[in-house]
């Protein structure tokens, strides 16, 4: 089961999705497996199902599932997304102002990952 410790690491590593960052160990890639915390291997690993790094609006997100006994457990999918980063050249801030302040939902819709087809292939 995904614990608070797992979620803490995913909440940090989702910021590593941003390809422009050069201060991270890696950029999570679709289909890859990573440790939740390289310093604590007992926390286990996660498999990246999908990743989004939208340069036009600054949104970063990833869908992941834990690896349990060597198998990806898609019954525990987590969608992690980065919060507003005011240092990314303004894209996050502009998107927040447009969507929250001005009610422009088109910026949210075009950046959303459609997870329905992904989830449909993983179950049943």
Question: Which labels suit this protein?
Answer:
single chain, alpha+beta, five-stranded antiparallel sheet, 5 strands, 27% helix, globular
Kindly summarize this structure in a few lines.
The chain has helices at residues 4-13, 91-101, 106-111, 116-122, and strands at residues 33-35, 45-53, 60-68, 71-72, 78-81.
Description:
- There is one protein chain.
- Strands 1, 2, 3, 4 and 5 form a 5-stranded antiparallel beta sheet that branches.
- The longest helix has 11 residues, at 91-101.
- Strand 3 and strand 4 (71-72) form a beta hairpin.
- The chain has 4 helices and 5 strands.
- The radius of gyration is 15 Å and the shape is globular.
- The protein has 124 residues and is an alpha+beta fold.
- The relative contact order is 0.17.
- The protein has one domain (4-122).
- 27% of the residues lie in helices and 22% in strands.
- The two termini are 20 Å apart.
């Amino acid at each position: 089961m995904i614990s608070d410790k797992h979620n803490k690491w995913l909440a940090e590593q989702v910021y590593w999705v941003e390809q422009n960052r050069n201060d991270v160990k890696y950029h999570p890639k679709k289909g890859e497996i990573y440790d939740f915390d390289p310093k604590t291997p007992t926390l286990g690993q996660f498999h990246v199902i999908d990743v989004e790094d939208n340069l036009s609006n600054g949104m970063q997100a990833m869908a992941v599932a834990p690896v349990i006994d060597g198998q990806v457990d898609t019954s525990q999918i987590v969608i992690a997304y980065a919060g507003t980063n005011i240092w990314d050249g303004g894209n996050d801030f502009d998107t927040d102002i447009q969507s929250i302040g001005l009610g422009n939902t088109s910026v949210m819709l075009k950046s959303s990952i459609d997870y329905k087809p992904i989830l449909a292939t993983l179950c049943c």
